[in-house]
Design goal:
573 residues; alpha+beta; Pnp Oxidase, Chain A; 6-stranded antiparallel β-barrel; 14 helices
């Protein structure tokens, strides 16, 4: 491994430079064909190593019991988001001791925002605008005749030899102890509309059921494009041609997991993200186009007559999805490049790689929808809550102070309508509330919201992605909460900024543990702070509080009740 505990056992970590690790040698010579302007997965892995965002595990690791649990610890072990890394396993084994001829990359596309940035190829503050532009102006793919993804092709009966089909792929078990098989978690399924010929690229789980049989769960509740295609082929009485890509240029993976209108070709959007057309090549046994720089491509036909049991499998909503009937695919070919890298998303309980990869793109899409598509004034930011809730359930909208209440409600209703499945709890907050801080959201909901006036329930919301309960009935609801200040409030009850900053300097001088300030970390004025009370507070910090006490004697009264407010002079405008 790149990181290992020293012999002294004192917690010291001896690090090897990932960029010079010999295990990366097979990936150092990617070929740039026909004007390719985007990195393939091999180049992405090298970029991760150069920026010290890659842990190379160069020893046997059991993909069925050890691999995902190892990576899971960086999400459930108190590791700060900024310190999370991608993991490259160069010697995967399985529960029966088998070895594999492919490496496995876990959390390699979005272990955190920095890993996403490296794959995306743009600074973080440009990613949102790039997504909006890419969806508005896709770049058509380019057809090529020779491709890295077909350097090795195993077709037809050749798949029946041991280790030559799905049994030769080191697909990890995501949730050992609950999942009933290894599942593709980063399998990008490509199908096409039989009427229009438009291809769809989407990421779905795939259960390994046999050397030549792969499951397919289309997440029907999300109305995935592949499901619409499946229904059309079923109506025709035909099997559906399909290709599953495992490992590909990062731009393609980012497009595969994004929720887009059905009229958009995800591979064309990927081209716009990459700044040039994605190279595609014709598959060997089905009439589909696949990314030429893919690592592994599985070709075959999805049955439209029969379904069979699939799952249990741990899901991103944080619960195990129990067994249900779903589709399956008969494999007709597997093509791959030499020295392939199989990608596996770490999903399930969030935060995870799958939540980061969706969040970085979806938040700017929501913001653009409210600001540009709907023209709502005062929207500053949209934040989708990630820990445990998996983005779709809780959405916060940060508004500028003084935004008219009509615009606040337009924003709440607008956010509830963008996706049929997203937004069970949608909360509008002021710009002093950190929308990523659940404690701050509860604070605003507790004291800036009166439910009888500031809460609306929208019935008949699509139930979306989540565990099935006894009262679902296929429907849910959206709760819209206006948690903005409705007038002037007294100051936030923390020391004023200058006193906190001075105390921080003392803290650091004393060598106390490093501070990580959390908003709010100082008090601030919310409009209801009369000049006389400001004067009294100044007297206190200058030690003149007994002088103030003498002044208060003059205001003694016998005709008031305990806790009655003191009459105040209006603050000059």
């Amino acid at each position: 491994m790149t990181d290992r505990v020293s012999a002294e056992g004192a917690g010291m970590v001896e690090r090897q430079n990932p960029a010079t690790h010999a295990a990366l040698d097979p990936y150092r010579n990617s070929v740039r064909t026909q004007g390719r302007c985007y990195p393939d997965l091999h180049e992405h892995v090298l970029a991760l190593a150069r920026e010290d965002r890659l842990v190379i595990v160069d020893e046997p690791i059991n993909k069925d019991t050890e691999m995902h649990p190892l990576v899971r610890w960086q999400y459930r072990g108190g590791i700060p988001e900024t310190d999370r890394r991608a993991f490259l396993f160069t010697q995967p084994t399985d529960a029966k001791g088998r070895r594999y001829g492919a490496a496995v990359l876990v959390a390699g596309l979005a272990a955190n925002r920095e890993v996403y940035r490296i794959g995306f190829g743009k600074p973080l503050d440009e990613i949102g605008a790039t997504w909006v532009k890419a969806m508005a102006a896709p770049v058509a793919p380019r057809l090529v005749t020779e491709a890295a993804c077909q350097e090795i092709a195993i077709i037809g009966d050749a798949l029946d030899a041991p280790g030559m089909a799905l049994d030769g792929l080191p697909v990890p078990i995501s949730t050992p102890g609950w999942d009933n098989a290894p599942y593709l978690s980063a399998g990008h399924y490509i199908t096409k509309d039989p009427d229009t010929g438009l291809q769809n690229l989407g990421n779905y789980r795939g259960q390994l059921k046999g050397p030549r049989r792969l499951g397919m769960n289309p997440s029907v509740e999300l109305r995935a494009g592949i499901y619409a295609h499946w229904l059309k082929y079923k109506a025709r009485g035909e099997k559906m041609p399909c290709c599953v890509v495992i490992g590909c240029p990062p731009a393609v993976s980012y497009a595969a997991v994004q929720k887009m209108p059905e009229s958009l070709d995800e591979l064309a959007v990927a081209g716009a993200l990459a700044g040039g057309p994605i190279n595609l090549v014709r598959a060997k046994t089905v009439d589909l186009l696949v990314p030429a720089e893919a690592e592994i491509v599985i070709e075959g036909w999805i049955d439209t007559e029969f379904l069979e049991p699939e799952a249990p499998f741990g899901e991103s909503h944080g619960y195990v999805n129990l067994q249900e009937y779903n589709a399956f695919m008969e494999v007709t070919a597997i093509t791959r490049r030499r020295n392939p890298i199989l990608t596996s998303f770490i999903s399930q309980v969030t935060p995870s790689e799958s939540s980061v990869i969706r969040r970085v793109a979806m938040e700017p899409v929501y913001l653009n929808h409210l600001r540009s598509a709907l023209g709502i004034r005062g929207v500053k930011r949209v934040a989708m809550h990630e820990p445990l809730t998996s983005l779709y359930a809780v959405i916060a909208i940060q508004m500028e102070r003084g935004t008219p209440e009509t615009e606040v409600w337009r924003a709440l209703y607008g956010a509830s309508s963008l996706h049929r499945f997203a937004g069970k709890w949608i909360i509008a907050v002021d710009d002093d509330i950190d929308p990523e801080n659940a404690d701050a959201l509860f604070w605003a909901m507790s004291y800036r919201c009166q439910p009888q006036h500031d809460l609306k329930v929208l019935e008949h919301k699509d139930a979306g992605h989540g565990p099935r309960g006894p009262h679902d009935g296929g429907e849910s609801a959206a709760v819209l909460i206006n948690a903005l200040l409705k007038g002037k409030f007294a100051p936030v009850a923390l020391p004023r900024r200058e006193f906190m900053e001075n105390a921080k300097a003392i803290w650091e001088r004393l060598g106390l543990p490093p501070l990580k300030p959390e908003v709010p970390w100082h008090g601030y004025d919310l409009g209801d702070w009369p000049e006389d009370l400001a004067r009294q507070a100044e007297m206190a910090v200058h030690g003149d509080y007994f002088q103030l006490g003498a002044e208060l004697v003059a205001q003694r009264r016998s005709d008031v009740e305990m806790n009655a407010p003191v009459p105040r002079k209006p603050t000059p405008e």
